[in-house]
Structures are given as C-alpha cells and as structure tokens.
Amino acid sequence: MRKTVFIMLLLFIPAVVYGETMQVITKENAIRADCNFFSAVRAMVKYADALEVVSTKGDWYMVKFGGKSGCIHKSALNKTAVQLAKTQGGSHAASNEEVSLAGKGFNPQVEDAYKKKHPDLDFNLVTKVEGFSVPAEKVAMFIKAGGLTE
Amino acid sequence: MKNMVIITLLVALMGCVPTLSSIPDTAIKVGTSVSKAARPIASEEEYYIGRSVAARILGSYKLLNSPEFTTYINLTGQTIAFHSEMPFTYGGYHFAILDSKEINAFACPGGIIFITKGMIDLAVNEDELAAILAHEIAHINHKDGLGAIKSSRWTEALTVMGSEAARQYTPGEVSQLLNVFEGSIDDVVKSLVTSGYSKAQEYAADESALVYLRASGYNPAALKDVLKNLQSKSTPTGGGVFKTHPSTEDRIAKVNERLTEYRVTDFFKIRSKRFSEHYNVFSR
C-alpha cells in the first residue's frame, strides 16, 4: 500500500509547476531573496528571460535563473515557452503567444509608423512620464513612515 | 490504510490545486470585445497602445511641472499598485499630473495614469488621494481601456501578424498594422475622454479600489469621502469625470454597501500631515 501512496503522489507531482519554465513579461524585473517587493535583489531579469519555477508561495514564484534563485511576483511571468532562436530560424511555426513575445504584434516598428503619421504628438513627453517612478526602497520607507502595509 | 491513501490524496490536492490556479495568465483576459479574438493582447502590446494613448492625452492637456508632488503621487500610487492583482505591468506604473482645473483622471493601458490638478484638489488627505489612484489602477488591472478596442480590429491585426515570429514587418504589413493600431488608439481615447466606461466597469473599479486601499493599509472609507467631495462639485453641465462616469450618488451608495470596519490609527494623522506639506508646495 505504501507503494500505492507513493505512486499516487508521483501522479500529482507533474500538476505542480515545479520545473516549469516561465517567461518574464515585463521590460525588466528583479529576483528577490525573499517573497516580498522590498527584499534584497539577487538577480535582474529582462523581458522574455526564461526562469525555472521551483515552487510557489502565495502570489510569488520561487525561481532559478542563471545559477541564482529567489522570488519573483506572478504578475511578472507568463507560462508561455518561447524560444526566440528557434522562431527566428523560421522553421518553427510559433504559437500566438510566441508571436507576441518574439516582438510581433504592436511593437516599436508600429509605434514609429504612428509617430510619423502624427508628428504633432510628443512622444518625448510620454518617455518623460515613464521616467516618473520611484525605487522600491523609497516605497518601503514611505509605507513604513505612513503606517501602511508592506 | 485506505484512510492514508485518502489523506495522501487530499494533501496532494491541497498542494497542487491552488498552485495551478495561481498560475497567472498575465497575457491578459480582456473583459469585453477583444477577448473574443484568437488571443488576447499581450503585455508588450498593451504597453505600446498605452504610450500612444498617453501621447494623445498629452496632446490635449499640458503636463504639470511639479517634481515633488509628482514623486509623492508616484509613491502613493506605487504603494497601491503593489497591493493590486497586478503589481507589475510591462512598463510599470507611472503617475503624472495634468495642468487642468477639470476634474478628471485617465488610466492609459499598460500603467500610465494621468490625474488633473482639479482632481487632486478634491482630496483633503493622503487616503483620499490614494482612493483616487486606486480607482484608476483598478481600470488598468481590469483592462478596461483595452476592452474599448473593437474586436474586429484585433482580429485584423492577428491576420497581419500571422503565425511566424519574425521581428520585422514588411512595409505593406506595417501599413496594415498602422491602420489597426490607429483605430485601436482612437477607440481607447474615445472611451477615456468622451464616452467613458460602462457603469458596471466603474462600479467594479470602485469595488477593487476598496480592496486595494484596505490591503495597503489606507482607510477604504476615503473613497466614499472623496466621492462626496466630488458630488459637491457636481454641476448640471459638468464635463470631465461627470461626463464619463455614472452618477456620483449611485457610486457613493454602492461603496457604502461594501465598506467594512477599519481602525483609524495615529498614522492617519502622519499621512495627512505629509499630504498637506506636499500639497501646500504643489498648490502655490
């Protein structure tokens, strides 16, 4: 019977995301030592980097990347597997998600065309607005000083 | 032993099912029209749509140059965003102030949020400012802007994109995609500036805002308070937020139904003090 239990457990293991590869879907992000937004950064990752999911903890994934391990929030990852090298070779018919992650869809090339058609629009201002951001450390201090929740 | 098998299975299920359900489909399920297409709009595509929508907004409104207050609203907004369903977007959240007395705010797809000076003037403390930002963050989390894009446009875009993941489009493809992109931007801007979201979307944004506020440690009742401030500014011919949102009275009633107990601590005074300090410099 012990064997049955063991086999049953094994049957469940593939359902867990352990070992699954997930892709970064933000421009850049951080793998942190602990599963919170303000923990020390172990490694920086960028769009389309493939991370190996080791386990989950609430809304966070514990991942491995480039010999380092740590936590990253689930909203920064997508489970789609993309192999740019393969798709760029042309022999591999990409899935719809792959198409987008590989730079298709609405991308800088389309934005450039839009800019040319609308020279009156000031995209430099948009880039300026994108510069309005605050580092996580400052947010942590702000939260603490205001008695808010980390 | 049978029990042991059952217990083992239960333990395995407890471990597995939540894990599976927690896998995000962050390439986004848009609530309305676009979700019917072959695939949803991905985070990177949402980002480019949002940039152009932001450019259009900035074509109609002047950006207010107030570095200190801009940093302050970014700290407040980022705190809320961390406690939303989607703390990270492709390009992140960015909050900017528009130099206009009109009472309005615009959540561009992808994470750029504009708030007018007139809207900021409604808030009398940090919790109320946080409530305004939480409502806008909810629109981004709910993909309400993308939902305004006609599904036919996205279907056409997908046809042009094809299934091969090449990085560069031919000039002909760019021209076709440009038409679709331009139409999509028009759809979103029209929804943000002129027609507004549906009542259901606005109520849902208020409901999520209450959740984000509570999770962040702000007083959720601040949303009701700031809506009351808004109500007091209402005029029969009011533009801005009055033109695009359901009646403030109805919103207050719905928020009221969902409010739960919150213990106000001394930190409220500390937050209110820092709000006043920043606001006094800002409003000079």
| Helical content band of chain B | 55-70%
Could you list the spans of chain A in which at least 5 consecutive residues all have pLDDT below 50? 9-16, 81-93
Task: Indicate the mean pLDDT of chain A.
Answer: 82
Extended strand count of chain A: 7
Q: How many angstroms does the end-to-end distance of chain A come to?
A: 46 Å
Q: Count the helices of chain A. How many?
A: 6
Label the structural class of chain A: alpha+beta
Keywords:
heterodimer, A: 150 residues, alpha+beta, 2 domains, two-stranded antiparallel ribbon, 6 helices, 7 strands, 34% helix, B: 284 residues, mainly alpha, three-stranded mixed beta sheet, 3 strands
Question: Helices, strands, pairings?
Answer:
The complex is a heterodimer of chains A (150) and B (284).
Chain A: H1 2-12, E1 21-24, E2 28-32, E3 41-46, E4 50-57, E5 60-65, E6 68-73, E7 77-78, H2 84-89, H3 96-101, H4 108-117, H5 123-130, H6 136-145
Antiparallel strand pairs in A: 1-4, 1-7, 2-3, 4-5, 5-6
Chain B: H1 2-21, H2 43-60, H3 67-82, E1 94-98, E2 105-107, E3 112-116, H4 117-120, H5 126-141, H6 144-147, H7 151-161, H8 171-195, H9 199-216, H10 221-232, H11 241-244, H12 248-258, H13 267-282
Parallel strand pairs in B: 1-3
Antiparallel strand pairs in B: 2-3
Helix pairs in contact in B: 2-8, 3-5, 3-9, 5-9, 5-10, 7-8, 9-12, 10-12
Short description:
The complex is a heterodimer of chains A (150) and B (284). Chain A has 150 residues and is α+β, with helices and mostly antiparallel strands. In chain A, 34% of the residues lie in helices and 25% in strands.
Describe this structure in words.
The complex is a heterodimer of chains A (150) and B (284). With 150 residues, chain A is α+β, with helices and mostly antiparallel strands. Chain A folds into 2 domains: 104 residues, SH3 type barrels (Roll); 45 residues, no CATH class. Helices cover 34% and strands 25% of the residues of chain A. Chain A is built from 6 helices and 7 strands, in the order αβββββββααααα. In chain A, the strands form 2 sheets. Chain A has a 5-stranded antiparallel β-sheet, with no helix packed on it. In chain A, a hairpin with a 2-residue loop joins β5 and β6. The longest helix of chain A is centred in the N-terminal third of the chain and has 11 residues. About 14% of the residues of chain A have low confidence. Chain B is mainly alpha-helical and 284 residues long. Chain B has one domain. Chain B is built from 13 helices and 3 strands. Chain B has a 3-stranded mixed β-sheet with strand order 1-3-2, sandwiched between helices. In chain B, α3 packs across α9, α5 packs across α9 and α7 packs antiparallel against α8.
